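user: can you give me the structure for this one chain? tokens are fine.
assistant: on it. calling the predictor now.
[tool input]
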Amino acid sequence: MKFRNVLLYNRYTSILIQETKRYAGHSKWQNIKATKQEHDTARAQIFNTLSHKMKVVAVESGNSDPNTNPKLANLVEQAKKANMPMSTLKGILEKIKNVRTGESHVLPMRIMKGPTLAIHILTDKLTYVKINIAHISKKFNAKVIEPSAFSHLFDSVTFVIVSKDCNLDSAMEDAIIANAIDVEEIKDESGTYFKFKSEFLHPEKVITQLKILGYTILSTENKCIPIGTVQVTEEELLNINKFKQKLTSEIREIVKIEDNIASL
């Protein structure tokens, strides 16, 4: 009887050890799988961010060629350093070749009597786009504010990025001739460029004068720089980000969205 009990004990012990090893192996695989999923998610977010930035640069500047658009070239280099597959990168560059045309607009909106968004739009059908934005905005308690109120919250400017074989002193003299507000020198891996500050959404006169002065126009960029910032809670920020995501995913005429939210 004792012998039989010993056999049963040994048998159950063996089964228990095997099951423990099996579950240990299963747990290890689950950990590896979870780590890989986290890595893949983070990688996808980086690629999506870079893809969106390339689209914004191409749309704003009207130039989708990295060889003549330094900002786009810089993003391409970032994508390569992030190990974006060449097939993915080529696909993105192919898509942004068909750059949309239209007039640039900025629609200022305030959310829940708190932060303000500057929604950059490129379209020939502004009324239609506004209707679509208003439909989404109702769900997030966001409303359009008057331009006069917006002007006290943001310093809005259009930058004209150009190239020319000259120094900053010469560029500053040319800025006066071209009626530009200011100019700064930009140096990066691809070379030296100049960024002329012009009237918001209306850089045409500055561009015309710069061309006459021998500059090569590379791109333009509309910026709404917050004069001050607004504090929000993590819950409010989550809701605002959902609103932004909803707008950019459903309304293709939206180029980008800037805000005056303070960093948490």
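assistant: here you go. The chain is about 50% helix and 25% strand. The beta strands are 103-111, 116-123, 142-144, 154-163, 182-188, 191-198, 216-226, 254-259.
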